[in-house]
Every structure is written in C-alpha cells, then in structure tokens.
Amino acid sequence: MTTRVDFYQLSRDPVERVAVMLARKVLQAGQRLLVVSEDPGQRAVIGRELWRAGPEEFLANGEADGAYAECQPILLSDRAEAANGARMVLLADGKWRPEALQFERALLLFGAAETEAARALWRELDDAEGVTREIHKQDEGGRWRAGG
After folding, report:
1. Who is most buried in 26, 33, 53, 55, counting CB within 10 A?
2. For 31-48, what is each residue's pLDDT tens digit?
C-alpha cells in the first residue's frame, strides 16, 4: 500500500478553517475522515466549525468515544485509530504519528511552531518505501498551492 502524506503549512487561516475545507473535499470524494488532535479543546472547535459549515453543507461529525462513532463520516479523536473505517487522517495538532502511514492519505497541518519538525519528517519520509509526499502552501489571496 502507498500512503500519500500531504503537508499543509498554515500561514494565513486557522486550523479549524483548513480542517473544514479539507473535510469537505474528503466527503465530496466519497470518503470518510479521521481528525486527530491531542487537545480536546481544539477537537471541540473543529467539531463545532464542521457543523457550522453551512445549512446545506454541514459536515456531520462526532467524537471517537461517543455513541455510533463507527457511523460518523468525520470522526474526531486523540488517536490515529479510525473506528469509522476512514482511509484518510487529518493531523490537526501538527504532531506526526507513525500510525498515519496505515492510512491511504495523511494530511498534516502545521504552523510556525512545528515547521522544523515538519522539515525533519519530510526528510525522514524521503527514503520511506511506499510513501509519496506533497507540500501545500497558502498564497496571500488564500488559495492553496501544491509544490515539492
């Protein structure tokens, strides 16, 4: 199995806004998503923003320790374990977890404080078998550009 690791360098928009944008794309592709953060407060903000994504476009989600976790299209958790069968994981807290390589696609969101760790991970994954990588940066107009 090949895992694609997408690095999203946050420079303009907050984590929750980027998480909503990516979650919407994942669901539009007919997939499920696991959003991981050790911070319960951050998970709560992301969950709230997913519900507020728009009256016709709200993005249903729930916590991994909640009822019917396996049915949630977007599952929020502190661990990279997809009770909902997701093949995509979004690491919202900027922390890499080796378990992310068990998914088809891992989306690592990182800010200025995590830049050095993200660079080190990029180099580490350079030699990893079955891993492809891509970096995404936001321009001043708010559009995301892929490169690297």
Report:
1. 33
2. 999 999 999 999 999 999
